[in-house]
């Protein structure tokens, strides 16, 4: 039986696999995903159904269904240097050169292109509530963005801009707590910096003795871990901060890697630390004892390594179930669906979870979800329809659309009754 958490890793060669899922306790392989390679900071989970990454040398995203291991490609406007998905899987952001592209997953619409960095984006990270995300770049900037503002209003101004780093920012971490959390960044300038996401205040700085390439923070945010180019992993206490300059110091060191530590991630109980290195190994450490308990061997330098709760698709031996929400190919131009107020239409994943077992039984509900998403994405506003009818133009098209919408509404009503309440027929027909 698999443990509650697993580790996803990838290396630069792709000889054995593109990505691999490992049991974090036993170190055994749970699943392998083949095809090409994944660039640094581009491998991530898309909801609970998919694994997505970017090829390092081509403008292509590759997507695997976790259960069926289907491999799908999406062409992007350029080579992706950083990739992140919101915790609920509803949005995906990618760094392409110095720009940030924001997509809505269910429709594939490109909602925004943000341009505030001056050098290629190196990493992206979402807050735990998915409302905000943070970007970092080789220009030394760390920028905090509001997802709703960026996607709906087309705002290209970040909430906060932190410019304290003097060299490339190599990794980011956002703690727990939504807007009230803290942001952590590391850089080649040998510093780890801590910021308040709500106020934008710089809270603390740790100056270490090597260029830093990775950062992770334990769940209670009592300790930060920084991976260095020397192969060391520094543990920095965030509680023992008594000096007025807010300068933190390393209190412990994990020693074992022979080359740069490029990836760090910590378990949900804070007891296990996963590190990936250019020495072709990923290591699982026991945090209290600082001892390495597993070595995961690869054929090349590690490009990604992170811990997640083990997806149900990796533990269930049942027949492959349909994903909870359709995945549409990402568009390469600005074609976002917007409502009458200029707000991007978002189909929530939660709405499909009312009848998850029914969706797994057949294609009917799955097609219905796709039709609803398309209707919401491409439907005209009420004001536009009324103007066309008043002008005498498009009256036939309007009547056809109304009839089609009534039919979809009737199907949705009947399907809800049959699937949610277990009835064969609804007690009454909906009003037209």
UniProtKB/TrEMBL annotation:
Top-rank lineage group of the source organism: Eukaryota
Each WD repeat, start to end: 114-155, 254-295
InterPro entries named in the record: Quinoprotein_ADH-like_sf, WD40/YVTN_repeat-like_dom_sf, WD40_repeat_CS, WD40_rpt, WDR18/Ipi3/RID3
Database matches in Pfam families: WD40
Keywords: Repeat, WD repeat
Name this polypeptide is given: Putative pre-rrna-processing protein ipi3
Protein's organism: Ixodes scapularis
């Amino acid at each position: 039986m698999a443990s509650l958490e697993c580790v996803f890793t990838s290396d630069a060669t792709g000889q054995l696999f593109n990505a691999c899922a490992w049991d974090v306790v036993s170190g055994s392989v749970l699943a392998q995903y083949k095809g090409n390679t994944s660039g640094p900071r581009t491998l991530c989970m898309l909801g609970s159904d998919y694994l997505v990454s970017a090829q390092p040398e081509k403008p292509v995203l590759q997507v695997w269904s976790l259960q069926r291991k289907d491999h799908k490609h999406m062409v992007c406007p350029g080579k992706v240097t950083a990739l992140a998905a919101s915790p609920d899987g509803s949005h995906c952001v990618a760094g392409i050169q110095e720009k940030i592209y924001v997509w809505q997953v269910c429709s594939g619409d490109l909602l925004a292109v943000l341009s505030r960095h001056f050098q290629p984006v190196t990493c992206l990270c979402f807050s735990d509530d998915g409302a905000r995300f943070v970007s970092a770049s080789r220009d030394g900037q760390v920028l905090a963005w509001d997802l709703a503002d960026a996607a709906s209003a087309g705002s290209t101004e970040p909430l906060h801009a932190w410019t304290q780093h003097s060299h490339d920012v190599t990794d980011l971490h956002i703690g727990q707590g939504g807007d009230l959390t803290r942001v952590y960044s590391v850089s080649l300038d040998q510093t780890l910096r801590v910021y308040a996401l709500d106020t934008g205040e710089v809270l603390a700085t740790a100056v270490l003795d090597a260029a830093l390439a990775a950062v992770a923070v334990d769940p209670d945010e009592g300790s930060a871990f920084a991976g260095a180019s020397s192969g060391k992993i520094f543990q920095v206490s965030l509680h023992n901060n008594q000096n007025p300059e807010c300068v933190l110091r390393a209190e412990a060191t994990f020693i074992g890697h022979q080359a740069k530590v490029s990836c760090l991630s910590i378990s949900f109980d804070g007891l296990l630390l996963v590190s990936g290195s250019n020495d072709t190994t990923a290591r699982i450490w026991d945090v209290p004892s600082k001892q390495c308990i597993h070595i995961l061997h690869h054929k090349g330098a590690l490009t990604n390594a992170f811990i997640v709760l083990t997806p149900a698709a990796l533990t269930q031996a049942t027949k492959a179930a349909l994903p909870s929400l359709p995945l549409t190919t990402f568009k390469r131009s600005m074609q976002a669906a917007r409502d009458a107020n200029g707000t991007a239409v978002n189909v929530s994943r939660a709405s499909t979870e009312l009848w998850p077992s029914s969706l797994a039984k057949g294609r009917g509900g799955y097609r219905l979800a796709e039709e609803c998403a398309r209707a919401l994405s491409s439907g005209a506003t009420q004001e536009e329809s009324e103007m066309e009818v008043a002008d005498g133009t498009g009256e036939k098209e309007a009547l056809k659309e109304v009839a089609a919408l009534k039919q979809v509404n009737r199907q949705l009503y009947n399907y809800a009754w049959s699937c949610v309440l277990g009835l064969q027929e609804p007690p009454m027909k909906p009003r037209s």
